[in-house]
Amino acid sequence: MAAAAVDAPRVKARLDGWRYPLAIGVLSRVFSFVVVGAIGLARREDGASVLDAMLDPFGKWDGIWYQRIADYGYDPTVAHGNGVAFSPLYPLMVREVASALSITYLAAGVLISTVCFLVALVLLHGLIARRSGERVARTAVWLTAFFPVAYLFSSVYTESLYLLLTVLAFVLIERGWVLGSSVVGALTVLARPQGILLTPALAVRIWKDEGRRPSWGMALRMLPLLLMPLAYVAFGAYLYYRTGDPFATQTAQATGWGRGINVLLVLGLPIAILHGLYVGTHDISRFLYIVDTAFAMTWGLLLLEGLIRKRLPAEYLLYGWLAVLLPVLAGTYLALPRYGMGIFVVMWLAAFHVAGRPRLGLGLKIAMPLALIATAIISLGFELYTP
Predict the structure, then answer these.
(1) Residue 181: inside a domain, yes or no?
(2) How many CB atoms lie within 10 A of CB 72?
(3) How many C-beta neighbours within 10 Å does residue 267 have?
(4) In the chain, how many domains are there?
(5) Residue 113: phi, psi to the nearest 5?
(6) 151 and 379 in contact (C-beta within 8 Å)?
(7) What does each C-alpha distance from 76 to 243, 244, 252, 257, 260 come to in angstroms?
């Protein structure tokens, strides 16, 4: 009885900490399902059930590939073998959940993504609140939940899983659990190749914790971090077994999506919008590319300001920089809005600016849901933009 009495305030405090992010998460999911579901019903094909029509838009674009991998694995005879461009953890989860619940791959993917997103918001709120306070934490949560393409957090995409795993990796390292953080990091690598970027970030944290001086103790503490590059190598070995090419992912990205190294785009991040304006005004079919470049520039400036003002510890800023630069280095600003919303460091930095400006916050709370509706209609309804 005494133990229960002692634990009760702690449990209540923890539940209080969960209430806000869960409420915002559920509200944003209901909002996204209404918006996207309405678009699905408007495009409903003859014979399709209401539920199937409402869920259909959540399985577009990359979602088609993840469902295909869940069904066929990395069969080199399917879709020209380009499925190897996508990592294995998410489609494996889709396959297992669909089998366990006897539901479609689409429904399984939507369920996995939605649950992962809600858990990620709870962890994100706790992580930021401990370092930057409740106001910044709450702001970061709703910025993430109602971002203009946040409906993708319930789509058959890796956005929610990746967000959950990266936040969890930092939560665990904050508590000194290096092995647990490394295991989660290895899972992140198998969810998305960018997960490898956690390795240097977590290494910086260990280096700081060990007094910034090389020692055998530091080397031993860093040893579990090898799980992340080992996961990367293991997937490459599997691809070599299946396709004869250990770098099949990079090959498929280059041949199927035209991605390649472009250092100039990295150097141009602070003025990326100019690139989008040039492209958009010279090729009207790519006018919405301006959106991608605007967000690319925004992420770059937020990270630059965060670095100059030292708003966050070095390990967070390092991860944020690497997570933005890697997709840009691949040769395009395309999908930078989507990538950025899943890089929690970027939303954290944005929250500093919004939390201290009530009028800006109020304006965004009105504008962002409207922008989500507009983006969903443009991308899912008219298919004029691929987020």
Answers:
(1) no
(2) 13
(3) 10
(4) 1
(5) -60, -40
(6) no
(7) 7, 10, 11, 17, 22
The tokens describing 141, both together, are 């949560």
Task: Judge whether 330 and 259 are in contact, CB under 8 Å.
Answer: yes
How far is residue 108's CA from residue 69's CA, in Å, rounded to a whole number? 14
Summarize pLDDT for 204-254 with one digit per residue, the tens: 999 999 998 889 999 999 999 999 999 999 999 999 998 888 888 888 888
Going by C-alpha positions, the residue among 327, 290, 289, 325 that lies closest to residue 304 is 325
115 within domain boundaries: no
* Residue of 121, 179, 191, 181 whose CA lies nearest to 150: 121
Cβ proximity of 275 and 293 under 8 Å:
yes
Which phi and psi (to 5°) does residue 157 adopt?
A: -130, 165
How would DSSP label each residue in 267-286?
HTGGGHHHHHHHHHHH-GGG
Q: Which two tokens stand for residue 370?
A: 């409207």
Report the distance separating Cα 316 and Cα 198, nearest Å.
9
CA distances from 184 to 18, 86, 219, 228, 334 (A): 22, 19, 20, 9, 28
Does residue 212 form part of some domain?
no
**Would you say residue 310 lies in a domain?**
yes
Kindly report, residue by residue over 138-197, the tens digit of the pLDDT: 999 999 999 999 999 999 999 999 999 999 999 999 999 999 999 999 999 999 999 999
